[in-house]
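[[Encoded backbone]]
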Amino acid sequence: MPAVNESAGPLLDVSVIIPTLNAARDLPATLAACAGALEIIVADGGSADGTVATATQSGARVVVAPRGRGIQLHQGALQARGQWLLFLHADTVLSEEWRAAVRAFIARAPSHDRAATFRFALDDPSARARRLERAVAWRVRTLGLAYGDQGLLVHRAFYHGLGGYQTFPLMEDVELVRRIGRRRLSVLPASARTSAERWQRDGWYRRSGRNLGCLTLYFLGVSPRVLAKLYGR
């Protein structure tokens, strides 16, 4: 387990669950930021790089699962010991404030029947990144649609009562937060900083447009498996 800073306080009763697939480059920073959690579970979908070794050397527990983010997340949840589950992408780094924000959320009643996410942030200094962050904040505030790259904190009983993540190859995050509902989803005063590489590589407008297009098709009833082929996953 990554070392816990003294300022982090006692361990949180939180199992961090991270789905991975060839994530050795980004994983160390993600794991280091999770110090203070009860445990970190890396649900690996068959990585061919050093992901599993990196996770093991960092003290995380590795769970081998069939490839697919939804099923990897759910397999990790089934193995978790904590009363609270924090689902996090492998290229997402939580800000230092996450521990205090999670403690405050857990202490509030009736938080056991609620879920929480973090503010979306990108590791890019450009104005385009800031505009995208504001757009995501509006989407979450207005529609209650928080994607997986913002993290998701939920009590294990609530998670399993909802039926957990579905074995979708895409839209597994949207499907779950829709079941949670906007009124039961809070945004914590801490950020989840995600790699901007996908937007830099594909183009800011093109990538965002493709994401919006896939979301629209999903709401129109297109199968996540069909969307995954269109999306290129």
Observations:
- The domain at 6-200 is CATH 3.90.550.10 (Spore Coat Polysaccharide Biosynthesis Protein SpsA; Chain A).
